[in-house]
Design a protein that fits this description.
heterodimer; A: 235 residues; alpha+beta; Sortase, Chain: A; two-stranded antiparallel ribbon; 12 strands; elongated; B: 289 residues; mainly beta; 2 domains; six-stranded mixed sheet; four-stranded mixed sheet; 18 strands
Chain lengths: 235, 289
């Protein structure tokens, strides 16, 4: 009888193939370097320019100056009258063409609970206005709700499936675009999110996109993790 | 450091923390020695240097400033701020001469010997008038400790030839009863404020109102300076304080984008496949017997 053999093979194929195929089609927890590496790799200490051999302008053969009693640096003075800082030109739009993300940006600050403020509208994304403008030194943070019980999925829902090399485009207030390339995507448990790194104000320009992800915890009406994507400037 | 205390006030329902400190007093004496005693100065990256600024707040008196006998600031005008200077930590002799003096050989207008500027410190020395109208040099330690995300520190220093004042922001008193040469700090949401100074306990405006920006993650220092004859004004200085990150990033409330286990239909398919295989395997084995 050949039927049982065929059923055996088909059954095993179905029983093993189904979960394996499902697992393979799930996005990885992370891709690229870790978020901390992606940002730290560009920290000032790592990127510090090698000391220039010509830094000391001491012409060879010249008599070394007599040791000064006090090596005073040049002093600059300025009018101390009060000033109002010029308003910062906030970025206006974020897009990831490969993932179908195209959303307007709102400048946001800090909520009363101390967390980053996010636009109520899940179709909009917040730019952390106390950090740098995208392209300036440091880590420019753009974040949005992944979903809402009434509004459905948010603009940043596809962030979970971004891949290294994806291009990110940010439109500035004057219409000029800055282009970025994803170097890291990671699911990080909220309790251990490296906030000081993600919101760091030093080092070369970085773009950090943040939303929620991982398993949903119904009792807390919250996700367990944050999806964090780090992108470097494209030349 | 004499009388230091903290209090909390609640304008508009938002907490504002107030730190009141007296500067390490060097007031009346036009000549004398004083030391800056830096209490718990946060370590900076470079532990060998100190950061020093100098504010000129004596009206109508341009000066030359000498440090250890060398000209540091030439023709220093009232209402201007010099620095920040990065200096090796150590002790400095400071002297102020009239701006038209040839050199530092005559009698100084004002001098202070052995001013200790410890490595890692961030300080401002103000040349100003006391409450009695005498010229004085007062050293202040600039508070560079971290402020919460989204907030800035506003420090007010009374260096005017005037009695006690209240400081208002947007018409509300945020600091009251400040006397020369004391300072007081509040932590407020970052942004632009309209500030003025009134005679303590009254609505008599002495300075302002003037718009100024309280920068996030920074200490915005406002000096009330001048005299009744020359007029009163604000002078400002901004010193980076530690910026803080928000405590987290919220992000979703519906679970629509959750990573979940394998969907039920796929689990069913898997179970059915394995069951069929087991059944067929048994049957295959028995059919062979």
């Amino acid at each position: 009888m050949r039927t049982p053999a065929v059923v055996l093979v088909l059954g095993l194929a179905l029983g093993i193939g189904t979960p394996v195929t499902w697992a393979l089609t799930q996005p990885d927890e992370a891709t690229g370097t870790t978020v901390e590496q992606a940002i730290d790799a560009s920290s000032p200490s790592a990127m510090a320019p090698a000391p220039s051999p010509t830094a000391a302008p001491s012409p060879s053969g010249a008599v070394p100056p007599s040791p000064p009693a006090l090596d005073l640096p040049p002093v600059t003075t300025r009018d101390a009258a009060p000033t109002v800082a010029a308003p910062v030109a906030a970025p206006v739009r974020l897009s990831l063409p490969a993932r179908g993300v195209d959303a307007p940006l709102d400048p946001v600050g800090v909520s009363p609970d101390g967390q980053m403020e996010l636009p109520e509208d899940v179709d909009r994304v917040g730019w952390y206005r106390f950090g740098p403008v995208p392209g300036d030194d440091g880590s420019a943070v753009l974040a949005g709700h992944v979903d809402d019980r009434e509004q459905g999925l948010g603009a940043l829902a596809p962030l979970r499936s971004t891949e290294v090399g994806d291009v990110v485009v940010v439109t500035g207030a004057n219409g000029a675009e800055t282009r970025w390339q994803v170097v890291s995507r990671e699911l990080i448990t909220k309790q251990v999110l490296p906030l000081d790194t993600i919101f760091g104000r030093d080092g070369p320009p970085r773009l950090v996109l943040v939303t929620c992800g991982g398993p949903f915890i119904p009792e807390l009406r919250s996700y367990r993790d944050n999806v964090v994507v780090v992108a470097e400037p494209l030349p | 450091m004499g009388g230091k205390y903290e209090m909390t006030v609640h304008p508009n329902g938002r907490n504002v923390t107030v730190n009141k400190t007296r500067p390490i007093a060097l007031t009346a004496g036009a000549t004398g020695a004083f030391a800056l005693l830096f209490a718990a100065t946060p370590a900076l990256a470079d532990t060998h240097t100190a950061t020093l600024s100098v504010l000129h707040a004596i009206p109508e008196t341009p000066v030359d400033v000498y440090a250890n006998g060398e000209l540091l600031i030439d023709d220093f005008q009232p209402g201007t701020l010099a620095g920040p200077l990065t200096l090796p930590g150590g002790e400095y002799d400071l002297a102020l001469y009239p701006a038209d003096a040839e050199d530092a050989s005559g009698d100084p207008l004002l001098q202070a010997m052995d001013v200790a500027v410890p490595a890692g410190a961030n300080a401002t020395v103000a040349a100003h008038l006391t409450e009695a109208g005498e010229p004085a040099l007062t050293p202040y330690v600039n508070d560079t400790s971290a402020v919460p995300a989204g907030e800035g520190r506003l420090t007010v220093r009374h260096v005017a030839y005037a009695p006690a004042v209240d400081v208002r922001a947007g018409g509300e008193v945020i600091i009251d009863g400040l006397v020369n040469p004391n300072e007081e700090s509040v932590t407020v949401p970052a942004g632009d404020v309209s500030a003025d100074v009134v005679v303590a306990g009254t609505d008599t405006v002495a300075i302002g109102p003037a718009d100024l920006t309280v920068a996030e993650g920074a200490n915005t220092i406002v000096y009330a300076w001048g005299s009744a004859d020359a007029g009163y004004a604000f002078a400002t200085q901004t010193v980076q304080a530690g910026a803080s990150a928000p405590s987290g990033v919220p992000g979703g409330s519906a679970g629509l984008a959750a990573d979940e286990g394998m969907p039920a239909p796929l689990v069913g398919l898997t179970v059915a496949g394995l069951a069929a295989a087991a059944f067929a395997g048994r049957k295959y084995a028995t059919s062979r017997v």
